[in-house]
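Dear Dr. H.,

I hope your travels went smoothly. While you were away I took the liberty of generating a structure for the chain from your last submission, since the lab meeting agenda had it listed for discussion. I wanted you to have the full record in hand beforehand rather than looking at slides cold. The sequence, exactly as received, is reproduced here:
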Amino acid sequence: MGGRATTIASLATYVPPRLLTNADLEKMVDTSDEWIRQRTGIRERHIVDPGVATSDLGTEAARKAIANAGLTPDDIGVIVVGTVTPDMFFPSTACLIQHKIGARRAWGFDLSAACSAFTYALTAASQLIASGAHDHALVVGADVMSSIIDYEDRSTCVLFGDGAGAVVVSAAKAGEPSILDFEHEIDGGGGPALCMPAGGSARPSSHETVEGRLHYVKQDGATVFKFAVRKTEEVSRRLLNRNGLTPADIDLFVSHQANRRIILSASERLGVAPEKVIINIERFGNTTAATIPLALNDALCAGKLKKGQLVLLASVGAGFTVGSVLLRWGF
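The corresponding predicted structure, in token form, is as follows:
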């Protein structure tokens, strides 16, 4: 990557305290704990209480990330928020978080890439730091998926949870670990396979769209599964090949946590040893933009992620969006 080297200087996460377990879902829809675990690997997920928004979760993670970096909000030059559940269409969630944390010198924007939002936001922020425009960027991946999930649709309501993660991206000192490279792509032909049909300019909100339950996530599970497995492997392999690396060189593989079977299938196809693959979906479900920082945080707390290790991030999301980031862990 061009420009000066950049690094992840800190990490923090936040999930709302309220749990929604598989046992709870058994009482809401025709499903079972065994069915959910076998097909997804999920045991429980966190969901917000009424009135709690994406910016609230993002603010909690952002404050901790800034403090963990030894900085103050005034040190942040730009804020990039990856989310598919903004508090509202406008103003942006970045503006709301900026105000809540008191980052008086920052500008920022939201980035919509569904489950690839964190990898894309991390890349965008890294490029802004690499350019020399800023010394410190705040990247937030946060979603309140419970706000757009139909809890009468058993095919989707078992999958998603709410959460947030944040990192500070800073200029790397000479010789220190840094963000090395990225590989992203989109395929808009896959749009209908995973979407929220109404609420935008194509189908504005109306009595008909509400009655038709079109303001909820709709998914063609089989199509998404096959695409995610294939593309996770493809984009990761391209990135490794370009950098003269093999899967054996990776210390840690952190994929978007959409489904346990997707992660295992993709990592097996790629040839990453199982002990290097981080999976924590059983505790959080699919939190969309927050899954990768939540997985990184678990790896860090478990002692599996250490300074200088080679880490490969990968994601596939609605759009379709596909992303991969290669980095050496910064702290």
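Two observations you may find useful: The mean pLDDT is 98. The first helix runs from residue 22 to 26.

With kind regards,
E. W.
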